[in-house]
Design goal:
Shape: globular
CATH architecture: Orthogonal Bundle
Transmembrane segments: 6-24, 36-61, 67-85, 97-118, 138-156
Structural class: mainly alpha
Largest sheet: none
Helix content: over 70%
Number of helices: 6
Keywords: Membrane, Transmembrane, Transmembrane helix
Number of strands: 0
CATH topology: Arp2/3 complex 21 kDa subunit ARPC3
Protein name: Rod shape-determining protein MreD
Distance between the termini: 24 Å
Length: 175
């Protein structure tokens, strides 16, 4: 049932980011919201299916974004690998650790996006704007990703409670 929860949250974040968020005037400064779920999955789940789920989310975002294909998939997989490595080396999931991981995650994705611009030779000379935008997105990520991970954790606990209540109700109806 945890994968159903992840699917629902993933669908919500992807729809929110691709449909609702572009209508807001400040959406230009927003980082990729699905990084929140990638960090949460990387910290809390340890099954091999995680890589397939993350690659699937990246494929969906690649299809919807119009960016070069495998850009989101590649960045999500790198974020997953670095968060898992950092978690194994540091052995904690405290708030400062999640803030550092958030900074790394948004920086990794921004670096991959910037590299793809240079690789495709689509540099238009707006370098100060790009650096300013990247720094703003990194700052937003440092604040919002820990909050989002906390909200998803609380939501997952409530989800588990709901599933257990439904199982108890089914059990009492059988008897």
């Amino acid at each position: 049932m945890k994968w159903v929860f992840v699917g629902i949250i993933s669908l919500f974040l992807i729809v929110f980011q691709t449909v609702l968020l572009p209508g807001l005037s400040s959406s230009f400064y927003c980082f990729d919201l699905t990084i929140i779920l990638i960090v949460y999955i990387s910290l809390h789940f340890s099954h091999y299916l995680v890589i397939a789920v993350i690659a699937g989310m990246g494929g969906i975002m690649d299809s919807l974004s119009g960016a070069p294909f495998f850009l989101y998939t590649f960045s999500y997989l790198w974020i997953f690998l670095i968060v898992r490595l950092a978690r194994q080396l540091v052995f904690q999931t405290s708030v400062p650790f999640i803030v550092v991981v958030s900074l790394l995650s948004v920086t990794i994705q921004q670096g991959i996006f910037l590299f793809s611009l240079f690789a495709r030779q689509e540099y238009t000379g707006t370098w100060p704007l790009n650096v300013s935008l990247m720094l703003q997105q990194i700052a937003w990520g440092a604040v919002m990703i820990p909050l989002g991970v906390g909200l998803i954790s609380a939501g997952y606990r409530r989800w588990q409670d709901l599933i257990q209540r439904i199982a108890r109700i089914r059990e009492t109806r059988r008897n």
